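Researcher: I'd like a candidate sequence for this fold, 446 residues long. If you have to choose between options at a position, lean toward the conservative one.
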């Protein structure tokens, strides 16, 4: 049976406070930062580039980092807070579509590790010995078509050890709504009630037009409640994914919205996103020209399961400008591609992290305040009431590329993982060259 998100706006406003903030946006109170980061440590280098690296910390203090280089999936572990790392291969040859960020990395309450990968399907692997050995991958999706393009998985485990995996793929012909012929892809859910041994039939949750690199969902669980971010909205399910209700929808007058979401051990929800404002629009109706404005990296939270949200507050302690150029109407082919793939020098949030007790929150993002794209960090020691001044994480040799991962412990330790673009040359639609993976750590002062 086809399950569809509950989208009726009037019902959402009355039942869940969808999109409702407690008051208008407020100005941040910035405190002096008392954190310093160790010199970045290069974990590895690759020729074709890495997907978004994932960083996890278990209850024994072991750090695990996972990334993909070409068709090989690697895991590195550190038993001394990131000073040294042991690297090994998880799988080789399975991963092929590296440009789509097609994997996720998670753990359960016992510390077992789970890796979900997309390679002509969605596959789950499991390790119960901190990543030394892995079970053979179990296929999750039930669509065996070669060109289904299953991508962008996200994975969560509830308190009853039920597994949930969401992913995007192209629809089958009979799944396409005749009234929405342009929506040829969808967001699908599959679940396992026996610890990942067997999986349910994948159920279509939402129609989407295109499964590109920005079309990846994010899923998390608290007790037996599931929360999902996708596009400009957050959804909640209280019945193991059978039905979903939108609890927040954000608006943007320019550009796509990407929400990054985390929760703490009390069930509070924390989100970060970029909020854009165009101050000058000199684009023409037939093409050409540019838009200019500024971007804020914003934070908000909910302490009542998404019924209401604190007013957004921006993390950046200086104005972050952006510029976007539109291709003239007579520009085509590879010249037009230069506009479509342009670096807008727009501030981009990478990750948000919350300590288990919810008292410490940190956010990392990339911005161009210095003229170069650099990785910045801000933190709060009072659950988001006030924030530190921004601190640069990278040095001049480890400028961030597009992705990063962040962890914060209750004892104020901070761990950061990010990618760096090394020597390369630009080509239409991307680049060819080296990509490096860097790690750094710090301790917050109080």
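Model: Candidate sequence:
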């Amino acid at each position: 049976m086809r399950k569809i998100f509950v989208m009726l706006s009037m019902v959402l406003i009355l039942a869940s406070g969808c999109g409702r903030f407690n008051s208008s946006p407020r100005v941040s109170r910035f405190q002096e930062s008392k954190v310093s980061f160790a010199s970045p440590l290069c974990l590895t280098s690759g020729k074709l580039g890495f997907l978004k690296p994932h960083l996890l910390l278990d209850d024994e203090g072991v750090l695990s980092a996972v990334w993909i280089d070409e068709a090989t999936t690697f895991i590195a572990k550190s038993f001394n807070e990131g000073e040294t790392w042991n690297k090994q291969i998880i799988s080789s040859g399975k991963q092929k579509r590296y440009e789509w960020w097609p994997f996720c990395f998670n753990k359960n309450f016992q510390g077992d590790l789970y890796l979900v990968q997309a390679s002509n399907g969605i596959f789950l692997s499991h390790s119960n010995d901190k990543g030394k050995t892995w079970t053979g991958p179990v296929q999750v999706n039930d669509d065996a078509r070669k060109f289904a393009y299953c991508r962008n998985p996200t994975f969560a485990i509830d308190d009853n050890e039920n597994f949930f995996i969401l992913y995007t793929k192209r629809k089958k012909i009979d799944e396409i709504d005749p009234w929405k012929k342009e929506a040829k892809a969808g967001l699908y859910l599959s679940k396992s009630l026996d610890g990942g041994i067997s999986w349910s039939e994948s159920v279509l949750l939402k129609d989407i037009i295109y499964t590109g690199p920005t079309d990846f969902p994010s899923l998390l669980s608290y007790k037996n409640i599931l929360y999902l971010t996708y596009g400009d909205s957050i959804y909640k399910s209280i019945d193991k994914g059978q039905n979903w209700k939108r609890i927040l929808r954000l608006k943007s007058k320019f550009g796509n919205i990407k929400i990054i979401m985390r929760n703490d051990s009390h069930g509070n929800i924390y989100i970060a996103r970029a909020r854009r404002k165009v101050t000058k629009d000199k684009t023409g109706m037939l093409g050409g020209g540019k838009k200019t404005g500024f971007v804020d990296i914003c934070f908000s939270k909910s302490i009542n399961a998404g019924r209401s949200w604190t007013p957004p507050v921006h993390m950046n302690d200086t104005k972050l400008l952006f510029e976007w150029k539109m291709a003239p109407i007579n520009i085509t082919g590879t010249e037009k591609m230069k506009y479509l793939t342009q670096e807008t020098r727009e501030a981009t949030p990478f990750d948000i992290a919350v300590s288990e007790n919810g008292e410490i929150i940190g956010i990392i993002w990339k911005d161009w305040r210095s003229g170069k794209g650099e990785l910045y960090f801000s933190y709060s020691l009072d659950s988001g009431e006030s924030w530190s001044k921004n601190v640069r994480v990278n040095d001049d040799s480890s400028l961030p590329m597009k992705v990063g991962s962040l962890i914060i412990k209750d004892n104020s330790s901070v761990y950061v993982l990010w990618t760096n673009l090394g020597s390369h040359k630009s080509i239409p639609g991307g680049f060819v060259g080296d990509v490096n993976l860097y790690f750094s750590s710090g301790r917050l002062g109080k």
